[in-house]
Amino acid sequence: MGLFYLSTPEHGWIDITFVDQSKSFSFCASDVPNDCLRDLVVAVTLLKKGSPSETVEFSLEPDFMLCELLRDADQLSIRLRLSDQSEFAFAGTLSFASFVDEICAELERIKPVYDSENSWTQPYPEVHIAKLRG
To answer: What would the pLDDT profile of 26-37 be if each residue is shown by its tens digit?
Structure first.
């Protein structure tokens, strides 16, 4: 496992895992009300373009996992917490370039099952991934 891992989505749910050195953290997110995978790609693209920080909401229905992304040169700090909590469930620092590669690779790996009725019902974020890679 690398820095970021996606399970095969089923019925609008996907397990998402973040890894930093010897620790990892997983949670199961929904594809509604927002497309959190697309939102993550957009947030990382904004970081690549110079934004110092972005936040992504992963729907856990009914709660949300908030993912705070902070970039400092080639380092990316990731902090995950439930929306009603002040303490972080996960905090780690990763290589920004490696994280970008992992996101693109994981989305490409699950592309064959993307946006199907019994998988992830949101459209594959082809345009957003192209912008992230560009």
So the answer is: 999 999 999 999
Contact 104, 133 (CB under 8 A): yes
Phi-psi group of 45: left, alpha or beta (phi > 0 → left; psi -120 to 50 → alpha; rest → beta): alpha
Long-range contacts, stretch 84-91, CB < 8 angstroms, 24+ apart:
89/25, 89/27, 89/65, 90/18, 90/20, 90/23, 90/25, 91/20
Dist CA 58 CA 54 (whole Å): 13
In the chain, % helix, strand, coil (3-state, to 5) comes to 30, 40, 30
Task: Burial-class residue 47 by CB neighbours within 10 Å (0-12, 13-18, 19+).
Answer: buried
Q: 31: which 2 tokens?
A: 């594809």
Using one digit for the tens of pLDDT, what is the confidence trace for 48-107? 999 999 999 999 999 999 999 999 999 999 999 999 999 999 999 999 999 999 999 999
Q: How far apart are CA 86 and CA 123, in angstroms?
A: 33
Helix residue ranges, H only, the chain: 36-48, 96-110, 126-133
